[in-house]
Specification:
Shape: elongated
Distance between the termini: 103 Å
Largest sheet: 5 strands, parallel
Order of helices and strands: HEHEEHEHEHEHEHEEHEH
Number of domains: 2
Strand content: 15-25%
Strand order of the largest sheet: 3-2-4-1-5
């Protein structure tokens, strides 16, 4: 009798394994505030068997996943890659094949400097279905929360989103091109290279171009510094700002309330020179 029960249990376990339907959903978690997760993102987490989440994801979002779902931290960020992309890919595939629905919870938007397509490509190679749930990108959402528009009147008619540190650990060549334009330029992962980045704009005669630095955007630890290219490095050091932070270059930054004091300073300087 005991032998029969063991066989029945083995058969049941085999059936359960065979009925696993692998699926991978890439969900954009937004810039930090958990309330910025989309409703579709919540629904994806509700049905997750496994959640693989990045370092910059607010862990409060894990509460949307079932209590018995496996939650795995895969700590990827610009200054500390605890997990290589290759390792994350392997975990993602292994969990999908063995447990079913894997939600890959990524900060911001999965397809904006988040290597989302690489993960989709890997899943495709194993014939695992994928779905994308866009998120609020920090590049747009964080300046927006500070009421800094990307485009406004004659100040800016377009915008660039550029990485400050590319795969080779260098400043992207695109930034040199962007600095020549009148567009609003958002630089991600660039605060550690602020001296080099500022020199690019100075070389274009833009020492007085308004700049905003937003650290921990949308979170309770958010810090904002507004200045101009010529002084922004000093302000960052003075306020002890660090990653994660983004930089916004452009005349639209002058619309931020903090820029009023800079307007007044230059007005006084102009009067004294006159």
């Amino acid at each position: 009798m005991l032998l029969i029960k063991k066989k029945e249990q083995m058969i049941l376990e085999k059936v359960e394994r065979n009925t696993v339907e692998p699926k991978i959903t890439l969900v954009g978690a937004g810039p930090g505030d958990p309330d910025l997760l989309t409703l579709k993102g919540v629904k994806a987490l509700n049905t997750a068997d496994v959640v693989l989440y990045d370092a910059l994801v607010n862990e409060a979002l894990l509460n949307y996943a079932p209590e018995n779902a496996i939650k795995v931290y895969v700590g990827k960020r610009s200054d500390d890659e605890s997990f290589s992309q290759k390792m994350v890919n392997k975990l993602m595939i292994d969990y999908a094949l063995n447990y079913g629905h894997v939600v890959r919870l990524k900060s911001g938007d999965p397809f904006v400097f988040a290597r989302g397509y690489e993960e989709v490509h890997v899943a495709d190679s194993y014939n695992i279905p994928t779905e994308i749930v866009p998120g609020v990108s920090s590049a747009l959402g964080v300046p927006g929360l500070q009421k800094i528009p990307m485009v406004y009147g004659n100040m800016s008619e377009s915008f660039w989103v550029v990485t400050g540190t590319n795969a080779q650990g260098q400043i992207s060549p695109d930034l040199y091109v962007a600095a020549k334009s009148n567009a609003t330029i958002v630089v991600l992962m660039g605060i550690e290279k602020i001296k080099e980045i500022a020199s690019i704009f100075k070389a274009e005669g833009k020492a007085n171009l308004p700049v905003a630095v937003i650290e921990n955007g949308s979170s309770q630890e958010e810090n904002v510094v507004v200045g101009v290219v010529d002084t922004i490095e000093e302000l960052i050091e003075e306020k002890k700002l660090s990653s994660p932070a983004l930089l916004v270059f452009g005349n639209v930054v002058s619309l931020h309330p903090q820029f009023n004091s800079i307007h007044q300073f230059y007005a006084i300087m102009a009067q004294e020179e006159y």
